[in-house]
Amino acid sequence: MNTNTALVLGANGIIGRHLTEHLIATGKWNVLASARSALHDKTTATFIPLDLNDAQAVAAAGDQLKTVTHVFFNAYTERLTPYEQSEANVKLLSNLVPVLEKVAPALKRILFIQGGKAYGAHLGRYKTPALETDLRSITPNFYYDQEDYLRKQSAGKNWSWTAIRPDIVIGFTVGTPMNLANLIAVYATLCKEEGIPMRFPGSYKAYNALVNITGDSILSKSLEWAALNEHAENEIFNITNGDIFRWSQLWPQIGEYFGVPVAEPQTFSLQEYMPGKKDLWAEIVKKYNLSAYTLEQLVQWGFGDAIFNVEDDAFFDVNKARRYGFQEMNGNSTQVLLDAFRLLKDRRIIP
Predict the structure, then answer these.
(1) What residue numbers bound the domain in which 298 lies?
(2) Is the Cα dihedral 326, 328, 334, 336 positive or negative?
(3) How do 214-215 and 245-246 pair as beta strands?
């Protein structure tokens, strides 16, 4: 009988979806998967529909949360300004945690996701390689505020927290805006259909900057490891594939995989040019008998503009997690991306 019960919040997202599958596959967890809408994939996890924005709804779900021992918090809500975003995302936690403290006596740890914004990546250049001990950037920053809330709330309690910082998570999901694998795959498919080369849409500097990414498999393993490692309590860990690369090294391999030629970078806005290709995408779906997703459901082009125009090196130091015992960050980022593309093909998302 499993003694640990995981509550995976944001189970439809790129992180939560794979984490749910991973925890189930280990056979060591009772898994509760929560999202605001029905789960996109079939699963043996117990589904708990939950809108963390609604404090009354969270309180009403208390009976379903009594056995929770570990919380994997992947929920997120978008707002227009940094102040609104911070307030709204802290509220997601503050609506939940007091309920768990009341109804789940065996609660041990709350794990939550941070990322490059913790180092000021959204503001521009940051020190590389980024270390977990680096000083904070200008506030408000909802990562900091969530962390501070959990630090304060857990003080003197029987539960602890752990923050995991991946960078550009690569994996399969639909309907998640920040999904780079979907974006590249759809972009390559559109270029191939139009008979044009797949040019890197960012600047030459961005094409040659050093970057890193995090595969969903490695991330899921790190979350489980951090949940069960007593030395990980109240700690922060950078998690990536363990390698760094330049898009100039990877782009030709991506083009080769999709069978589309690659030419020199040519800077343009994906957000400006690509949404107008929704009719072409609909034709591709029909022509190749693909799953009937619209362009808007698969891709958020503005996310690509942000990623592909980072002109300075942007990567993390991951040695802290290794020192604490997590030894899985030996991935190959090229392979991680290609595996994500293969899954998109298997699911009939791309031809």
Answers:
(1) 169-212+244-346
(2) negative
(3) unpaired
How far is C-alpha 71 from the geometric centre of its chain's CA atoms?
16
Q: pLDDT for 239-278, tens place per residue?
A: 999 999 999 999 999 999 999 999 999 999 999 999 999 9
**Helices within the chain (DSSP H only):** 14-26, 55-60, 82-103, 142-154, 180-194, 204-208, 216-228, 247-258, 270-273, 278-287, 295-298, 301-307, 319-323, 333-346
CA distance 49 to 268: 40
Residues 139 and 206 in one domain: no
Is 112 in a helix, a strand, or coil?
strand
Distances (CA, A) of 348 to 15, 21, 257, 343, 351: 21, 20, 16, 8, 7
Q: Is 154 helix (H, G, I), strand (E, B) or coil?
A: helix
Whether residues 233 and 265 share a domain: the answer is no
Question: pTM for the complete prediction?
Answer: 0.97
* Strand pairing report for 46-49 and 70-73: unpaired
Count the domains in the chain: 2
